[in-house]
Every structure is written in C-alpha cells, then in structure tokens.
C-alpha cells in the first residue's frame, strides 16, 4: 500500500475505545498535514471498530484501515504488520492512548530531514521527550528525560542504547531506510521500538529532540509503561534491589541471546549508564 503523502502514521490499537478518539483527534489537529493515518485493529472485543468506522466515514482522504478483521498479532506484531504493509518516505508510530502536541509531526519531520542532510545514505531516526500523565492527562512529569535524569545525547551509541533505550516508538520518526534495514525480521520477541532503535544506533544515526511532544498516558490497562517520579530515585531502587538484580540477570541473558555480546558487556554498560546518570544528571 503506497502512501501518497511523505509521512505514514501507523496506529496500532487493541481494545482502545476509552482513549482512541482523543488520540486520533490530536493527530488530526497537527500543524503539519503531510501525512496519512493508517490504523490496524488487533482483534479488539470492545467498541474500537465502531470508533474507527466513524473516523473512516468522516476523513476518508486522511485515514485508512488495514487488515480489517485481521488476526490478533500482539503489540509487536501489530506495529510491524503496519510497517511492512505501508510504503512511505517517513514513518511515525502511534499508540492508541497517547495525545500528540500539535507541533509533534512538524518538529520531528524537520529534525529527521536535518539529520538526513548530514547522513543521506543512512537509516535515520529522530525522537523526542514526553510529558508523563495519568489516565486523565494530569501531568505527572513535564519532561520524562529530566525526571529520570537522562540526557539522551549521552546514550546514542549502540552499546548504550541497548541498555538505556530513550528512543521510544511513539516519540520517533523514521526514514524509509530504517524499514529497508530491519525487514525481513529476524527476531520474534524484542519489543518493536527497542529492536528498531538498537539497529539504527548500530547501523544508522539517531537525533534527540530536547522537547516533549506528546502526552504519554499511564494507566492500568496499557501493555507497557515507564518509570517516573520517585520510581527513578536511588532510594526507591535500593528498596527493591532484589528485584533489580533479577531483572538485570534476565536482561543480560536476553541481550546475549540477540547478539549484543557476553553478559559482562551488558553489566559494564549498565553500570556506566547508572554512573553517567547519577554523576551528571540532565537539568
């Protein structure tokens, strides 16, 4: 399926009736209009399809549904199915429960084109900061990077991105060379945006945009969430040291399995990431 506009926005949704309309409206309100929105409903059992149908009727030139009635593929499979189906110059992923700020598309589009001017032959990804909100969009952190003390410019290399991935899928824009690089897929379990980000870090170029461009909604029904506030303090982490040790052991094996390197490499870069964050917090 060929996108007639430069940017394909790929929205994967599963049982998203509670927040879906708000997210689609925020995309329709973008200052940049050089995009087409592609939606894939991952076998929802709630009113998600009725909401999609209402937008398809109202915005037939802007919104396209793919695989209507398709099988449930899970979060990773849903996004990659969208990506492999749509042909475009640039891609942006959208969760069904976030809200985009009006300038998100334009700022990221400008950022990736600047990156491409420097590296025209390479896969490129530009990514932004997020505003962390509760389910009602009350702000919990005005900047996730500042709240976590992470300056993403310090972690753009492959070795660091693999242990401190700051380039979330819903925060990013990718050029066509990224799609060409990752297909056909050779891995069947890594989270989609992590898998893309580490491959871009290894074989292309990343650019961090130091501005929050979406409201990231934290709620009980989401597949993945992020830590924020007190969860990122040293005292909180020390209280759950046992769980962290188990997590790091699992991640070390996980990284070895996908080819990152021996476990000692993971532990070294994890340690150095913690040192960089604690010794030079992002302010």
From TrEMBL:
InterPro entries, per this entry?
Glyco_trans_2-like, Nucleotide-diphossugar_trans
- Please indicate which superkingdom the organism of origin belongs to: Bacteria
Gene3D superfamilies named among the record's database cross-references: Spore Coat Polysaccharide Biosynthesis Protein SpsA, Chain A
Q: Glycosyltransferase 2-like domain location, by residue?
A: 9-118
Q: Where does this protein have coiled-coil stretches?
A: none
Q: Which GO terms describe its molecular function?
A: hexosyltransferase activity
Q: Which SUPFAM superfamilies match?
A: Nucleotide-diphospho-sugar transferases
Protein name, per record: Spore coat polysaccharide biosynthesis protein spsA
* Source organism of the structure: Rikenella microfusus
Q: Which gene codes for it?
A: spsA_1
């Amino acid at each position: 399926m060929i996108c007639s506009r430069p940017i394909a926005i790929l929205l994967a949704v599963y049982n998203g009736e509670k927040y879906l309309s708000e997210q689609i409206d925020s995309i329709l309100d973008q200052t940049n209009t050089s995009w087409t929105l592609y939606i894939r409903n991952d076998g929802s059992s709630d009113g998600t399809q009725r909401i999609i149908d209402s937008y398809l009727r109202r915005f037939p030139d802007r919104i396209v549904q793919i695989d209507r009635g398709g099988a449930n593929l899970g979060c990773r499979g849903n996004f990659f199915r969208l990506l492999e189906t749509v042909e475009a110059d640039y891609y942006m992923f959208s969760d069904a429960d976030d809200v985009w700020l009006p300038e998100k598309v334009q700022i990221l589009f400008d950022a990736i084109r600047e990156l491409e001017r420097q590296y025209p032959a390479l896969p490129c990804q530009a990514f932004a900061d997020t505003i962390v909100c509760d389910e009602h969009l009350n702000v919990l952190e005005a900047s996730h990077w500042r709240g976590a003390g992470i300056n993403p410019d310090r972690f753009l290399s492959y070795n660091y991105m693999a242990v401190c991935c700051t380039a979330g899928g819903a925060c990013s824009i990718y050029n066509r060379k990224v799609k060409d690089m990752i297909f056909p897929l050779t891995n069947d379990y890594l989270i989609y945006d992590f898998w893309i980000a580490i491959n871009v870090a290894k074989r292309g170029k990343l650019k961090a945009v130091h501005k929050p461009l979406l409201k990231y909604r934290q709620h009980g029904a989401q597949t993945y969430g992020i830590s924020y506030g007190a969860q990122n303090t040293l005292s909180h982490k020390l209280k759950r040291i046992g769980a962290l040790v188990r997590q790091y052991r699992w991640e070390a094996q996980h990284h070895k399995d996908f080819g990152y390197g021996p476990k000692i490499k993971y532990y070294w870069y994890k340690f150095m990431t913690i040192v960089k964050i604690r010794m030079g917090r992002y302010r």
